[in-house]
């Protein structure tokens, strides 16, 4: 198994990044929040989780080891595959997930596209004693992206999670006043998802 990947960022796309390691470009599927911390040409080290299927080997990349461990733990719940686990981490931070599951907050979990009432209840039932309590650490991100770049990243993240381009654009406009001088893409994405979940 590949525990982490360290190398130069060759490309950052809508849902993945390519890191050049020893002359080989490895594609890692990442949440929009993780992608927002990467800069093309810069060095990066990302914890990774490899998902092996009959027809594919997929590497998922994470901001830190905590996010990686939560990703792997989420998949132990019935009905939660890697794509859904990644969607959950795109919408909620590891500590938000711990709080939601620990307090049996079905409403928060159903903000994730693909999770309904019954799915949320099942996740709570199966993971309540295993996720632990919130760590309370402050998550640090690399330098914020250019002022307007966040709009594209949030829009692409929402579309990647299953929302239509029109809905995504409306949500981006709704959260634009929160952007400020140094936009936090992960926070803005979560805010946009809250807007869409209320619509």
Automatic annotation (TrEMBL):
Family of this protein: Belongs to the RuvA family.
Protein location: Cytoplasm
NCBIfam families: ruvA (TIGR00084)
CDD domains referenced in this protein's UniProt entry, alphabetically: UBA_RuvA_C (cd14332)
Location of region: Domain III: 144-199
Superkingdom to which the source organism belongs: Bacteria
Residue ranges of domain Helix-hairpin-helix DNA-binding motif class in the record: 72-91, 107-126
Domain description: Has three domains with a flexible linker between the domains II and III and assumes an 'L' shape. Domain III is highly mobile and contacts RuvB.
Repeat in keyword set: no
Summary of subunit composition and partner proteins: Homotetramer. Forms an RuvA(8)-RuvB(12)-Holliday junction (HJ) complex. HJ DNA is sandwiched between 2 RuvA tetramers; dsDNA enters through RuvA and exits via RuvB. An RuvB hexamer assembles on each DNA strand where it exits the tetramer. Each RuvB hexamer is contacted by two RuvA subunits (via domain III) on 2 adjacent RuvB subunits; this complex drives branch migration. In the full resolvosome a probable DNA-RuvA(4)-RuvB(12)-RuvC(2) complex forms which resolves the HJ.
Functional note: The RuvA-RuvB-RuvC complex processes Holliday junction (HJ) DNA during genetic recombination and DNA repair, while the RuvA-RuvB complex plays an important role in the rescue of blocked DNA replication forks via replication fork reversal (RFR). RuvA specifically binds to HJ cruciform DNA, conferring on it an open structure. The RuvB hexamer acts as an ATP-dependent pump, pulling dsDNA into and through the RuvAB complex. HJ branch migration allows RuvC to scan DNA until it finds its consensus sequence, where it cleaves and resolves the cruciform DNA.
Entry keyword DNA-binding: yes
HAMAP family, sorted: DNA_HJ_migration_RuvA (MF_00031)
Name of a matching Pfam family: RuvA_N
Entry protein name: Holliday junction branch migration complex subunit RuvA
Species this chain originates from: Nocardioides fonticola
InterPro entries xrefs: DNA_helicase_Holl-junc_RuvA_I, Hlx-hairpin-Hlx_DNA-bd_motif, NA-bd_OB-fold, RuvA, RuvA_2-like, RuvA_C, RuvA_C_sf
Keywords from the UniProt entry: Cytoplasm, DNA damage, DNA recombination, DNA repair, DNA-binding
Gene, per the UniProt record: ruvA
């Amino acid at each position: 198994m590949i525990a982490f990947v360290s190398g130069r960022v060759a490309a950052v796309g809508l849902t993945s990044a390519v890191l050049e390691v020893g002359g080989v470009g490895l594609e890692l599927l990442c949440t929009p929040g993780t992608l927002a911390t990467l800069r093309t040409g810069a060095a990066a080290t990302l914890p990774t989780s490899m998902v092996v299927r009959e027809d594919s080997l997929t590497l998922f990349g994470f901001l830190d080891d905590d996010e990686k461990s939560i990703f792997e733990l989420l998949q132990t719940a019935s009905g939660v595959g890697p794509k859904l686990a990644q969607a959950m981490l795109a919408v909620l931070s590891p500590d938000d997930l711990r709080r939601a599951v620990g307090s049996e907050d079905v409403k928060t979990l159903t903000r994730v596209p693909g999770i309904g009432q019954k799915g949320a209840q099942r996740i709570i039932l199966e993971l309540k004693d295993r996720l632990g309590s919130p760590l309370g650490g402050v998550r640090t991100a690399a330098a914020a992206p250019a002022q307007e770049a966040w709009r594209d990243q949030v829009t692409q993240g929402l579309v990647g999670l299953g929302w239509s381009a029109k809905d995504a654009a409306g949500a981006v406009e709704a959260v634009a006043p929160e952007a400020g001088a140094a936009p936090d893409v992960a926070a803005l994405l979560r805010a946009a998802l809250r807007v869409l979940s209320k619509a």
